[in-house]
Design a protein that fits this description.
Layout lengths: L4 H15 L8 H8 L3 H13 L3 E4 L5 E4 L8 H9 L24 H16 L3 H6 L10
Helix pairs in contact: 1-3, 1-4, 4-5
Amino acid sequence: MKISTKGRYAIRLMIDLAEHNNGEYITLMDIAERQEISEKYLESIVSILSKNGLLNSLRGKGGGYKLAKAPELYTVGSILRLTEGSLAPVVCVEGENNSCNRASQCQTLEMWEGLNKLINDYFDGITIADLVQKSGYADNYII
């Protein structure tokens, strides 16, 4: 599994909005400057996040973006699944039903399912608020 810039930048965008939340809408230009990310690229990311109810947007003068909910209600896992799709390390553990015809005799399936659970539990255990506060979320997952 490799997280693309889309997923990484989406998390940075959400952190930026949480850190600069003063009740006002924040322009994409301001976020792009602070995060040193192309405004055009951020447009594609905010589109995904807005359509899925993570961000509120307002067009025109005084417009921009702000979080739709409190930072502690957003998990890194939910953001990554929106921007990246599945976080599964292998195709056979994506989704609810394993359609592999070898699943019943696969000696590695349990291993892949375990890794998939670790990945999702880890990212679902970290919120945007945790990242803003730089709390010790990683200490909870010593393997």
